[in-house]
Each structure stands twice: as structure tokens, then as C-alpha cells.
Amino acid sequence: MSAPVSVSLLVNGEPIDAFVLPRLNLADFLRENLKLTGTHVGCEHGVCGACTVRVDGEIVRSCLMLTVQAQGALVETIEGVSDSGEIADLQVAFRERNALQCGYCTPGMLITAQDLLKHSPAPDRQAIREHLSGNYCRCTGYQAIVDAVEATAKTRAERGT
Amino acid sequence: MKAAAFAYARATSVVNALELLAVHGDKAKVLSGGQSLMPAMNLRLLSPEILVDIGGLAELRGIAMRGDVLVVGALTRHVDLLRSPEIALNAPLLRDAVSHVAHPAIRNRGTIGGSLAHADPASELPACVVALDATIVARGPTGERRIAATEFFKGIYETALSPDELLVAIEVPVIGQGSTFFFQEYARRHGDYAVVGLAARAVVAAGRFSDLRLGFFAVGDRPLLAAAAGKLINASVNPGLLAEAATALTNELDPQEDQQATAAMRRHLATVLFRRCVAALLARPELEMGVAK
Fold first, then answer.
1. Which among A46, A49, A59 has the least Cβ separation from residue B39?
2. Is the CB of A20 inside 8 Å of chain B's CB atoms?
3. Minimal Cα distance from A72: which residue of B?
């Protein structure tokens, strides 16, 4: 019944063609098949946010998306957005402010924070908290993460980017 | 956990999706945004034999005015409702409600049709369509049928849809002048499922309700259109009348007890929301104080 299905997508700009079982979710496909292990798998039911990636420019939970649903899609992972330099300043701010300890939530936090800064360049702390509310961190207590995102928003505004 | 194995069919059109549903019947599940279905499958609460993926059917996505009816395609995503000028102008209740649905990454994938067909009694959009007196449009092998939102929800995760039908659109009547809306919910944290919530639509003229529809959610096995609202229609609302209506409301609610709240707590919170709603819609803050027993 559940035969492999062909799927073609772009991952971090690279065309990928694969045959996958329908039950394979996008997070596992990225990690197991493509060895892009920066996308983390926490709760596997959409609550923790560790598996957040961008699909066609919008953040999604890759544990709640089947690989076969990504047919024709443009998928960007933490590897893609860090290699391109898109979030270099955000990564520096996270490091400087101790906005990560174990690092498990960090890829999802970074992608979600970058999504906020793209849509709303000058968010207040409440807006930052709200946008990150679907991403759990069990180490930092969130203050440092909010600090880092706020600081990045300010530096970007000063640079005019 | 991971979902159990299943077969997968990517529908190429609504007609094709209906053919697939006709073949597979209740062994199939329709996949739209997957934000309720996938968690249920990953937790092995559901193990359909086949998923019929309608996610690519662009014909089912979009928001448009048709006369004085706002037509929302089933695949319209929560984020579309948040950003749509037509929704903001004609049915701001949906926008206000969706901001309470989960988190941005979920709202980018979740669809209105999926949420309604899933029929979780604690979710926001079912109560909204009840309050808005909307009509659910379903297509099946013999054609299209229209189901009043008040008749659509049958129980926990149960709707009037049969296994060979597809929810294709939601029609919301637009009243325009004089209509006002209210949406609030109690949740442990913003984005969590509600402990109790209220979605309301009213028509107010000269300080009176000429219409008042109160859609409560998380107070029973389906969204409840509160009959107690009738006591306030075409009446001069004073604290006594409001207290009487609040008592009538607690009598018609049949909330469940779960780890979030007892039935008594839900009844109490429902009356708090009720008072707050009436006070806000009539712009009479003093009514909210009332008798808070």
C-alpha cells in the first residue's frame, strides 16, 4: 500500500530528487537522507519548534509536514541561512548574550527570529516573545534570547538593512 | 513518535479528490495543512490507510466577496485570514480569533477548512463560524450541499460531512452597518488550546442588541450557540437582566472536566466572558462589574 513516492524539491538552493515513503516527515528527510542535522527533532507533534525550517519563504514545522508535501517547494534549513550569511549578525548576538546553552532549540529560534525581523524590523519585546512563543528553550529562561533578537533589530535598523 | 505507514495520493483537482474519497471511503483522511492531522498521526491517535492530499488545489484557496457574502476557500490558511483586508473589513472576528491559534509556523500551514473539518471543540474557528451564522459548503459525488454552521458540528471531532465529501468553502454573511464583534479566550498561555472562549457577533442600534450570537467553545463537545443571548435582544440591558441571562447561560452549558479546568471553573469563566462581551459590545464598561458570583 505505502509505496515510495517520487519528490523533487530545492533544499538550500540545491535540486533534490528522491523516492520516499509517504510517512517520512520533512524533518527526518532533511536529517536522515540529506544529513542536514541542524534541523532538530524534539516533540514530533508541533509544540516545541526545534524543527522549524522555511518552506517557500515561510516558517513551518518540518515534523508536521510530509516530505511528499514539499514537492516543488523551496526548503531552507539552518545550514542554508547560516552559510549564506543571512543571519550572521543574529548568530553573533546569540553568542555574545549567552542566548544558547545546550543549543538544541537554537536553529529553530534563529529561523523564527529571522522570520520576525523580516516581517517587522522594529519589534518590541512583547512582539519578540509572541513570535517566539512556539519555540521552547529549556536552558536560558528566554531573557537572553529576547535580548539578542532585540539587539539585532536595533543594529540592523542603524545599518539601514 | 512517527506516523504509521500509509499510502499517499496527491489530488490533482477537486473532482479527482472526490474520486479518491469515493474509492477509499472512511479508510482515507483528507490532508490540507496537516497541523491537526499530522500531530494526531505522529502520536498514533489516527492511522488512516491513505491520505488524500488536497494541499495543491489552488482553486480552494482564497477570499472573495460575492454580493453580501464573504466566501472563504477551504484551503485559506490562518495567516491569510490574519493578513486579508477583506477579512479585516467584513469579518474581523476571524482575524481576531486566528491570532489566538497556536504560533506563526503553525498558522502558515493550518487551513480554515482543515480546522472546521477536524472539529476540535476547544478550537477557535468552529465557534466563529457558528457566531457568524456561516454556511459550510461541501462537495460530494452527487454535487454540492450547504450546511448551516450550527448544524455542522456533531461532537468531538465529528461533523456532518460524510466520508466521500470534501469541505470546499465557507460562506459568511456580511451584515455591514451596525455589526460588531467580540473575541476572547482564557488559555494557560497564548497559543494554547482555550480553557473557555467566546466568539460573538452583534448588531447594536440605539444601545440595544437587535441581534446577538454568542459562540462559546471548550464548554462542551461542540461549539455552542448560547440561547441565553436571546434574553438580551431588543431589551434594555441592566445589571438584573444580565445576571438573569448569565444564570441561564450556566444552565445551558455542559462543560467537561479535564486537566485544565473543572466544569464549575469553566461555567464561571464562561459567565465572566459573557459579561465582558456584553459590556464591550454595548460600550458600557459598568456592566462587566455586575454581580461576580
1. A46
2. no
3. B56
Is residue A59 within 8 A of residue A51, CB to CB? The reply is: no
Q: CA angle B233-B222-B278, nearest 5°?
A: 30
Q: Are B70 and B62 in contact (CB under 8 A)?
A: no
Q: How far apart are the first and last CA of chain A?
A: 51
d(CA A149, CA A135): 14
Nearest CA in chain A to B33: A65
Cα–chain-centroid distance for residue B31?
19
Name residue B186's beta-bridge partners. Answer: B196
Interface mutation vs chain A, best among B38, B83, B115, most A CBs within 10 Å: B38
Q: pLDDT value at position B97?
A: 98
The model's pLDDT over B249-290, given as tens digits with 9 standing for 90+, comes to: 999 999 999 999 999 999 999 999 999 999 999 999 999 875
Nearest CA in chain A to B40: A45
Q: Please return the burial class of B144, using the count of CB atoms within 10 Å of its CB with bins 0-12, 13-18 and 19+.
A: exposed
Q: Is the pLDDT of residue B193 over 70?
A: yes
Number of helical H runs and strand E runs in chain B: 12, 14
Residue linked to cell 510530509: A66
Domains of chain B: 7-53 (3.30.43.10), 59-173 (3.30.465.10), 179-287 (3.30.390.50)
Nearest to A59 among B8, B43, B108 (CB): B108
**Per-residue pLDDT band at B293 (split at 50, 70, 90):** very low
**Does residue B185 register a pLDDT over 90?**
yes
A55-68 residue pLDDT tens:
999 999 999 999 99
- B290 or B157, greater pLDDT: B157
Q: Given A3, A44, A134, which is nearest B106 (Cβ)?
A: A134
The predicted structure's pLDDT at residue B292:
46
pTM of the predicted protein model: 0.95
pLDDT of residue B178: 85
In DSSP terms, which residues pair with A54 in a beta bridge?
A59, A76
Look at residue A1 in the predicted model and tell me its pLDDT: 55
Q: How far is B109 from chain A (nearest CA, A)?
A: 7
Amino acid making up residue A74:
L
The answer for residues whose C-beta is within 8 angstroms of residue B156's C-beta and 6 or more apart is: B119, B120, B121, B221, B222
